[in-house]
Amino acid sequence: MLFGGTTWQDALDALGLKRYCCRRMLLSHVDLIEKLLNYAPLEK
C-alpha cells in the first residue's frame, strides 16, 4: 500500500477503519513516549 499508489483513504478502509473517530486517531498520532520519559520521576 505504501508505494503502490494507494490513497490514505483506501488504506484506512483496507485496515477496517470506517468511522472518522478511528481514522483520526491513526492519522493524528504523535509518538511522545521519548519526550515523556525525560520527565519521569526518579525512583528513590
TrEMBL record:
The keyword Secreted does not apply. InterPro entries: RNA_pol_su_RPB10 (IPR023580), RPABC5/Rpb10 (IPR000268). Keywords: DNA-directed RNA polymerase, Metal-binding, Transcription, Zinc. One of its GO terms (cellular component) is DNA-directed RNA polymerase complex. It comes from the Eukaryota. One of its GO terms (biological process) is DNA-templated transcription. Pfam families: RNA_pol_N (PF01194). One of its GO terms (molecular function) is metal ion binding. The keyword Mitochondrion does not apply. This is DNA-directed RNA polymerases I, II, and III subunit RPABC5.
